[in-house]
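A note from the maintainers: we've had questions about how concatenated examples are separated. There is no special marker in the raw files; a new sequence line simply starts the next protein. For clarity in this README we add a label.
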Amino acid sequence: MTKEYLNGELVPEGLAAALAFAASQETRIGNVIDLADVGRAEGDPKDPGESSGPIPIVIASKMVGDTETLDAVDLVPYLEKYAAKPDRKRIHVTLTDADSFIAYLNEQKEKTTRIFATEADIDARSFCFEAPIDFIEGTGGAASWITHTVKLELETTPEFNTWTSRDGAFFGQVDFAEFLDDNLIDITDPPGADILEVVQNLQVKTDVAFRSNIRLDNGDVQLLYEETSEQSGAGAKGSIDVPTKFTLNIPVFRGTEPTPIDARFRYRLDRDNGRVRFGYRLSQVDRLVEAVVNVTAERIEKETAVPIFKGTFSRVGRK
């Protein structure tokens, strides 16, 4: 344990001993005095973190050359350091899913607890709910140092990150087939068997030259090709049917329910070399994300019975 000194003398360990030591210094450093009411107008509320008894301050004397100086020494750190437990909760908790946030709030909340929701940063997809557990009381009520907070930082899921990271990009034929195959479980419409057939056709038909495309009555696109490999019968014609849209069903944030996300297949056909590149475009992702955040906020407010304010708060002064 670090040794503590006051006026050049070692402060003994233990709360009682430390206080006795302070009292013993009266002839040289003055009395232990109560400053709880100094500077406070009559009737003003006390800070809820203040002790109901005196605030122990000693006036310490020291010589600097031939000049004596007096310093006010706050003994509160000594009191808390040697006490059985702190005088208030001092902890800032960060959680990453709504279930944990709700459970923690319901366990720790006080009558003054409030929740602050940051404005949605759609581009960064960074969303936060922060609750000061020991927040200030209403008009005429007590102040607070706000030393106990819990924050929910919503994290997007790996599935959502996978699909949004390639949104709008184009793949080569084989790469696109592999991407669909790896993430087939996320697609709910068309059925997995239909998507798997597209994947297999794209993986097999690599020695072909795509010549044209036809839009079918069901909305799908039919890509017409000619075989270029002698082994497959050069000049032989065939086609691959590709759906124009599909639907994902994935959770946007950890701890949230899966959400349907519509998407459209995209392709670029180069008739000069017969190559085709594939991609997809997700529909209104930003609006969907904001909607999920709003649903999460409604759930938190309902299940905790703690009001939510849009904005942020900051602690000022002593922590």
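[label: protein 2]
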Amino acid sequence: MKRILFLMVTLLLTMSALLLTTAPVLACIPARWTGGGTIDTAAIIPAGGVKVTHGFEFHTTEGPFPGPYPIPGPNNFEVNWGGNHFHLTQLSWTDDVMNPLLPLPDPPTAPVNEVYGLGVGQLNGVDGATIYFHLTDVGEPGKNDFAHIEIWVPGANRNTATPILLVEGNLKSGNQQAHPTNK
């Protein structure tokens, strides 16, 4: 009995590892993302219940992780919170996937339901700020879509500095939608 249990656990772990290691290879599907809204949580940084809104239209491109690849435009991403505003000027990297653990993004029918991205832009009119984001589209209504956004001040090292904004949660209002490319 112990031998059978050991073999079952080994098989389960092997299959899990295979799924986790092959998922990124299936990623980077060309798509277009639109939408935005208000994130249904207080910002983690800065603390204190700051309302965070975001809006975007951007494209993703095809290729194996980690890129970078030329990303077709237009690519826009804006975030507003506590009197601050971020405006994307260059989308540096994206990676999107059809995550089988999430609901399908329908309507509209799309080839992906989850995206990660990195870019640079202006923070309160000053060039050089960095944004990292993780978004999902899990269909209608948009209140079940998820957003994670981090923004660093111009000149900050994203790997060592604390972001000026770190927020995540489901949307309180709005909608994030994945679309087939150029549709």
